[in-house]
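Newbie here. four chains, one complex. Structure please?
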Amino acid sequence: MSVTVVFLGRLADLAGAEQMMEAPLDWAGLLAGLPEDARVAIGDARVKLAHNGNLLSDREALQAQNGDEVALLPPVSGG
Amino acid sequence: MSVTVVFLGRLADLAGAEQMMEAPLDWAGLLAGLPEDARVAIGDARVKLAHNGNLLSDREALQAQNGDEVALLPPVSGG
Amino acid sequence: MVMRWRCFRQSAVVEAVTDIRLLETGFSPGRGLGKFAQQVPEAGGIASFVGKVRADDGVKALELSHYEPLTLPGMQQLAQQTIGRWQLDGLLMWHRVGIMRPNAPIVLVSAAARHRRDAFEAADFVMDHLKSDAWFWKRERRDDGWHWIDPRAADHDDLARWG
Amino acid sequence: MVMRWRCFRQSAVVEAVTDIRLLETGFSPGRGLGKFAQQVPEAGGIASFVGKVRADDGVKALELSHYEPLTLPGMQQLAQQTIGRWQLDGLLMWHRVGIMRPNAPIVLVSAAARHRRDAFEAADFVMDHLKSDAWFWKRERRDDGWHWIDPRAADHDDLARWG
């Protein structure tokens, strides 16, 4: 009964590349499972949240079930 | 005692690629040496004149001597 | 990996060759462009851009990370958007991920079109979006370790040009 | 044929590799670009354009004529003007003359720069000038013979963008 949480970019330095969290998982549960500095970093509203590969327009509406994957995506840089 | 006159682009269809004309050669002499349809085509002020590889700002100021090369250059197209 | 998309553009069906790839290993831009050109014989012009890891600034290596479920679908959406906006015969978009050495190619974009302006603008548009609106995270290794790179303000300005 | 120019640009001396050629015979854009890229290792980006003889419209052949004393010097002046206007590591400008078959490359322009926008704009600028402000005359052979081609109005509009 778990949800995979993936951390991209500099968030991976704060929380590891991937964590398993207990299902079901909502936004408050996700925050509670994070170390303090990762929680602060995620306070930045530019950090997006994807649930099973779909971006959530309201990340606080997260409702993840057993086997789901959630990803936290900080602002990008590429090219 | 002659001047080489070079015709570029569609002017070459009217006057040949190259003609020898008697030196010294000025603008009136050049016109006089051309067939009628080439003279009409050169009436287009966009046709430029080069004297020994230098463009003349006033083509009617042409004063070519023996051994010189004069070129008549219609509007270009490239690429 | 080469596909043909059909899109509706100003009420006309247009068809363009697309070649969109995320690459885990190095590639040759010259060979990629050569093969792409053969697939778009009708195109009068091909505008291309190659981005490389800069060989200066004390950068030892560059790492690009991506998120599988979003990155490639995002590039495919960008391709369709580009094909819908300019009249193209083909669009190539290759992007490296993983760790790269200085001078290694990171990105290759090539747009083939009947008319020069379409090709230039499409390639420019794709690059601006890959640079600051695609799911890549970049960090550089210097003598003192790894550093995450944020997009430059100029990249956001470039993106804003397209409205 | 590869030269280094020194120009003054905003009171700083800039040096850029230039490779400016008029070619009487066919060339490979991919190989040309590959070799050029090796000469500009510092450049973060290379923007390129390849123009080809279109394979449609019933065109059997294209002939480009030039005037030796003006055409190549004009291309070299265009290169210096471009290097003075954008910050470039290198600029390649190859142009075919003579008779070409459909699909043959006519022109290859490549601009290498530290920053993407410089590379794109320089390549775009050079193409606009080669297209309607360089000493080339173009005619096409169709079933009914040779026809001279005038620049399109769009080419003059493109050129006017640069002020």
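Moderator note: The beta strands of chain A are 2-7, 18-22, 25-26, 48-51, 54-55, 63-64, 69-73. Chain A has a mean pLDDT of 94. Thread marked as resolved.
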